[in-house]
Amino acid sequence: MTTVATSVADLAQKVKAAAPHVAALSTGEKNQALRLVAQELVAATEEILLANAEDIARVEAEGVVATVIDRLRLTPEKIAAMAQGLEQVADLADPVGEITAQWTRPNGLSFTKIRVPLGVVGVIYENRPNVTSDAFGLCFKAGNAAFLRGSSGAFASNMALAKVIRRGLQQAGITPDAMVLVEETSREAAVTFMQQRGTIDCLIPRGGPSLIQSILDHATVPYVIDGDGNCHIYVDQDADLAMATKILVNAKMQRPSVCNAAESLVVHQKVAEQFLPLVVDALNGVTLVGDAAAQRISPSIGPAAEEDFGKEFLDLKISIKIVDELSAAIAHINTYGTGHSEAIITADQTAADRFTQEIDAAAVVVNASTRFVDGEEFGFGAEIGISTQKLHARGPMGLPQLTTEKYIIHGTGQTRS
Amino acid sequence: MTTVATSVADLAQKVKAAAPHVAALSTGEKNQALRLVAQELVAATEEILLANAEDIARVEAEGVVATVIDRLRLTPEKIAAMAQGLEQVADLADPVGEITAQWTRPNGLSFTKIRVPLGVVGVIYENRPNVTSDAFGLCFKAGNAAFLRGSSGAFASNMALAKVIRRGLQQAGITPDAMVLVEETSREAAVTFMQQRGTIDCLIPRGGPSLIQSILDHATVPYVIDGDGNCHIYVDQDADLAMATKILVNAKMQRPSVCNAAESLVVHQKVAEQFLPLVVDALNGVTLVGDAAAQRISPSIGPAAEEDFGKEFLDLKISIKIVDELSAAIAHINTYGTGHSEAIITADQTAADRFTQEIDAAAVVVNASTRFVDGEEFGFGAEIGISTQKLHARGPMGLPQLTTEKYIIHGTGQTRS
User: Fold this and answer.
1) Which chain A residues are Cβ-neighbours of B394 within 8 angstroms?
2) What secondary structure letter does DSSP report for B382?
3) A383-406: per-residue pLDDT in tens?
4) Closest-CA residue in chain A for B225?
5) What ipTM was predicted for this assembly?
């Protein structure tokens, strides 16, 4: 009988063995395989939908909430979009082989720093089954084998998608182990997965705070945290208030459930009296909670608990803080922010410069919506996530962030004295 | 009564509060402070030596081995070298503020990617007290506050050094909390230290396998592993054997206790008969252990256990493996290596290219000694360590590796549609 631990470890060995083969593929071979897998996904629409229906029926019976079921539900359009996503990745520039630095030392040694695949990229993700093909595509294009572990809710869908992707790889003459999905969806399997040190070269968790905490507690493999976005919009005393209103509505309301949506509004006291009524009008349908100063200005603003300022609502709710100067805004944001995306609305260049310099976040935005902080909007073509950590990658992660570098040193017999 | 945990956490708050001040310093201010601290170190030679004598007396009484005592012992020359090291760091280019990418999107948003300090860099290190000033200097020049935790053996020396460094900072008008040393040297303090998530932006361990394991088991802060170097020299069938001998002697014998020293020799069978007798002669005083094929060639080669091939001896000992082709050499090295530095000696360009492409290590060297893999020899001026991981930094880490990047986005009111 195989235990969960040995079954995950066995799969790890397979994907590890496949990694050098993926790394050695040419750009053309990778692109051709991505296009074949895309065709295969569309051709297998019925097979995938059947598996998905099984998942939907099961989670519905379990009484899972509607928004989760929506994320889980696949349609022919969604499958076509997954296929198109793979074709787009095929069109992106291959980061592998890029020479990022080159120099020669006085002793004649010549140094080349070159971009190479990481090896095996692990991804742990929650319900959305499209991550199975998206993550595979990006990892593969960057020359990596993909080791995936989805959630129990999407078990049948992910299994079907993995089967189709592996079939496409095989048709392209590539080892199907370039993409391995862990079938076990238990917590034990997740913990074993994040401890495959020596196999997983980089682990990317795509999920909520409990997954992140589990990574911090248990992971022994290197990881990049795709964390929460408690994003702020700071409206400075010199802000164009019409612009501020428009940006705030976009950042809060366009898609409240995503990490680059605004969760908190910080307003300079000099414009608070004038601006907050505009906010109350414009954020129609949004629950507003604020500090005492904000509440004094508008009865539509309820009291904010201390913890509200640190919360990623992911919902039609926003916290409001009034500050008496720019430095208080910066201090507030650096205290409660999660290092994702923070915006200032101001016509004052000096204030903008101080804000962009002193705010400690992946992206600092001046006079635009925080919603622009993602790989597509950055022009990266696609993203595997948005890093809120400072090491390796910060902000939207595209293909180059799925690689590492290597030094190659050429000599003519040099020894060190 | 304060516990170890609260005392470490209190220090963490101090260093965290200092970090924005360090980040805001100009290059000139940082360089002036480094030079003042250097002067202060030399001026305090007597004070430091007195503290060091206390450490030496204590560890001698404890019966610690001579090599450890050697590393611990300070002299006026060593203190002068520490001061000179800080002056050299002052002379290095400041990585902070470098614009690493810049572009504009069709919607008019302008993107700037800029190099910024990490914030707080933590370093846990073993006996060498010079790390106290070296680590401070590099962290500080890159705009970071340094949070240091030395070993119990060097307790008094480190305390004295920290006091002198903090005095120098104060003279330069900079908060002394730009460098904070944890006084507690217990294991509990080390674990608490590596769990200061939210304070330590990057932890760099400088120590042996047990420290690394403790980091893997307990750290919740981001870290960069400065790991073992089980470095190989592969002598190809087309190697110039005189060159190979010279390089092997340098890589093995010049300084056997360092991570870029060679620990294993891999030889193509076509040249083994001719080469191994040269090796036996040249590596006079080195214990040779090899596989059956190597032992058949020379009676001076003892049997190697399986584990010898995976071991970083850090001593005058080397393992020898005979392979029947290049791909077997690559497979052997990728199995037993630690991803540090691997060398091939060959006149065959095709073999060299395959080796540099397929070996999975931070540095791959052709026809030169692995001993060149360090920050000084790379031309980085100084290094805080050599990363054997693939994320964030790989290979020698200089000042840029002690920074992160931030995106600054300027708009004119753009919202996402």
Assistant:
1) 404-407
2) -
3) 899 999 999 999 999 999 999 999
4) A222
5) 0.93
